[in-house]
Design brief:
single chain, alpha/beta, Rossmann fold, Dihydrodipicolinate Reductase, domain 2, 2 domains, eight-stranded mixed beta sheet, six-stranded parallel beta sheet, 11 helices, about 25% strand, globular
Length: about 350
């Protein structure tokens, strides 16, 4: 079997995770790591016995490399992706595709023009529990979706460049995009209008809101709500956190979501208990009530697998089979279009914005 020769551009926290996961796949030969941090590169090169470079153009010029992981700072994504695809390489790209809508569209256009596989790392679609939730929804057990709700409290982004919208794209493109993409996927409906409300920011090195409250009006009459906040969670303590200790109640982290349907509802709480609650409706008139049907326990599965899963396997299969991944470039672009509409709504003080679509 001929292996896929890959290179990793950007080897920080996210990029290094991708590097190690891809290297563990038998179909992959990851031969080059690229990063601007020479000390980090030296450590990675020695540990994994791979080549290292501080210039991504070395990867672009290497005709032997078939695919590139892009996990560098967000403003560099579109330029590297376009050069890589023009050079005949497939691309696994961290979100966002780019910090501007125009650049996102250009990347998608180049992917199609050069017939390259371009995959955005919206990993929630391929994670264990969302896959199970999708199965329940598609089975009809909870009926037609009427609303969806997600609440996420966490600590601030680091390093500091992520607090600059010009470099990162802002809170929505950096994080809330995952919830938007998940809701689009679970419901099978697009977002028709967005309303975003944000209080004045607190985090000093952000130049965009650190808290946002979104209302999404979606197809089939679905109304969804997303809360995202970076100022109520402890990210570090003296001596550091051990394992998943930071997710204990007192440290303020919260992540959960609910799907409400015409026949029942779902509630997923991964941080404490790792359980999926399935509810149903019984009775008529004043006797109508909501009842707990069952609890599905996922505590035997790591938090990382529950939430983040691994779409790397999907990317490898797509490259081997010459097909799109489960999220096409156009589908990813749809999620990005919603995110830019959210940013516009937030900047306008909550005015309803229809996503700009070609």
């Amino acid at each position: 079997m001929q292996k896929i020769r890959m290179a990793a551009v950007g080897c920080g926290q996210a990029g290094y995770g991708h590097l190690e996961t891809f290297m563990a796949q038998p179909e992959v030969s990851l031969t080059v790591a690229v990063d601007i941090d020479e000390k980090r590169l030296e450590e990675i090169s020695k540990k994994h016995n791979i080549d290292a470079s501080t210039d991504y153009r070395d990867v672009i010029k290497d005709d032997g490399i078939n695919a590139v992981i892009i996990a560098s700072s967000n403003e560099t994504h579109p330029g590297i992706a376009i050069e890589a695809m023009k050079a005949g390489k497939h691309v696994f790209c961290e979100k966002p595709i780019a910090p501007t809508l125009e650049e996102c569209r250009e990347v998608v256009s180049i992917a199609r023009k050069h017939q390259r596989i371009f995959h955005t790392h919206f990993e929630l679609r391929h994670s264990v529990v969302p896959v199970r939730i999708k199965e329940i929804i598609d089975s009809g057990e909870i009926g037609q979706i009427r609303s969806m709700n997600l609440v996420h409290y966490r600590g601030p982004f680091r390093p500091a460049w992520k607090g600059q919208r010009k470099l990162s794209g802002g809170l929505t493109l950096m994080e809330t995009c995952h919830a938007i993409d998940l809701f689009r996927h679970l419901s099978g409906c697009d977002v028709e209008e967005v309303f975003s409300f944000a209080p004045p920011r607190v985090i000093p090195y952000y130049d965009y809101p650190d808290t946002e409250y979104l209302v999404l009006r979606m197809g089939n009459g679905i109304v969804s709500h997303i809360t995202s906040c970076h100022t109520r969670s402890v990210t570090d303590k003296e001596g550091g956190f051990k394992d998943d200790e930071c997710y204990e109640e007192q440290y303020g982290h919260q992540y959960e979501y609910s799907i409400l349907g015409t026949k029942g509802s779902l509630r997923y709480k991964p941080l404490r208990g790792s359980r999926l609650f399935v509810y149903g409706f019984e009775g008529e008139g004043e006797g109508w009530d909501c009842v707990l049907r069952r609890t599905e326990d996922f505590s035997h599965i790591s938090y990382n697998e529950q939430i983040h899963g691994s779409d790397r396997r999907e990317f490898i299969d797509a490259v081997m089979e010459g097909r799109d991944t489960y999220i096409t470039p156009e589908d990813s672009l749809r999620t990005h279009e919603v995110c830019f509409a959210v940013e516009e709504s937030g900047d306008s003080g909550g005015r309803g914005i229809v996503p700009d679509r070609l």
